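User: Hey, quick favor. My workstation is busy. Could you predict this chain's structure for me?
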Amino acid sequence: MTRVLHVLDHSLPLHSGYTFRTRAILKAQQATGLEVRGITGLRHSQAGPNTEEADGIVFHRTRGAANGPPGLREWREIRALADAIVATAQDWRPDVLHAHSPALCGMAALHAGKQLGIPVVYEIRAFWEDAAVSNGTGSEGNVKYRLTRALENRAVAGAGAVVTICQGLKDDLVARGVPADKITLSPNGVDLALFGHSAAPDPQLRAQLGLGDGPV
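Assistant: No problem, here it is.
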């Protein structure tokens, strides 16, 4: 059975849009018969064991801290996560690494994948340099912006396949020279099963709307 190790910034039991999308992807892969696990980098802030299960999914944690000036600190984050991936792979041998943005995760997966001799898929949910501009923590075109974009380009170039959350991100990558057939779209969706069974139609309301007894 194929095993996929997902390389993540953070995960359940933390709650965020990022973790909910991750959960949906891993659950969908489990449903197809794949064996999946996740591993988080140093930015997973919640305390817990080195390996923990959340909602039926096993997650491994990277321990330690990355200090130093900007640039060196991020490189240390990448190395710590790459080393943790390789260590995890000694016991649970994945066939594929599926890294999720930011590019720190993508680069860590590429380093580990090269050492392990397994392919890497890189999924981009947002360009983090543009997100920083949007939330006011960065400026377009400054040094940090350009370095972040360059790191993203390296992660995309090194991955065997790329997934984006929307057509706009795909178009941006194609404009940078990435072959369109290397990129797959995986948009957000809603798992209706999480909300239980829908309420039965109200006959009186249906009659008022002129819907009769047929399907809506």
